[in-house]
TrEMBL record:
Signal peptide: none
Family from the record: Belongs to the BlaI transcriptional regulatory family.
Gene3D superfamilies (UniProt xref): 6.10.140.850, Winged helix-like DNA-binding domain superfamily/Winged helix DNA-binding domain (1.10.10.10)
Species the sequence originates in: Arthrobacter koreensis
Top-level lineage group: Bacteria
Pfam families (UniProt xref): Penicillinase_R (PF03965)
Alphabetical list of InterPro entries matching this protein: BlaI_family (IPR005650), WH-like_DNA-bd_sf (IPR036388), WH_DNA-bd_sf (IPR036390)
Alphabetically ordered keywords of this record: DNA-binding, Transcription, Transcription regulation
SUPFAM superfamilies: Winged helix' DNA-binding domain
UniProt protein name: BlaI/MecI/CopY family transcriptional regulator
Length: 123
């Protein structure tokens, strides 16, 4: 799974939060609202947004609804599914999975450990 750049991450965050698919212009407006303190936020061209959406579509993170104009974009998976996939990919690339899991489990909070226990007991 490919990593996300700063603008890709910002767009995915907006798509994950949106209850419906968004157009490139809607994404551009929301990016500008979220980054109002950044000097380049309002100057983001819609073509740039479309280019990033195209990249996200190639990475299979975004689906484009082509039946209406302007096209609308939505996240293919939830944020939780995406994060779990990233974690699984990283774990799968480890030479010593047990050591990685031990390190991870050793770094979680007590509440998170209880959640892990509960999830494992239910599995």
């Amino acid at each position: 799974m490919a990593t996300l750049g700063e603008l890709e991450r910002a767009m995915m965050d907006l798509l994950w939060e949106a209850p419906e698919a968004l157009t490139a212009n809607e994404l551009r407006e929301r990016l500008a609202q979220n980054d109002a303190g950044r000097p380049d936020a309002k100057g983001l061209a819609v073509t740039t947004v479309l280019t990033v959406l195209s990249r996200l579509e190639k990475k299979a993170l975004v689906a484009r609804e082509r039946d209406i104009r302007p096209h609308r974009y939505r996240a293919v998976t939830t944020r939780a599914e995406h994060t779990a996939e990233l974690m699984h990919e990283v774990l799968g690339s480890a030479n010593d999975r047990e050591a990685v899991l031990a390190r991870f489990v050793g770094s979680v909070s007590a509440t998170e450990a209880q959640t892990l226990r509960r999830l494992l007991d239910g599995a």
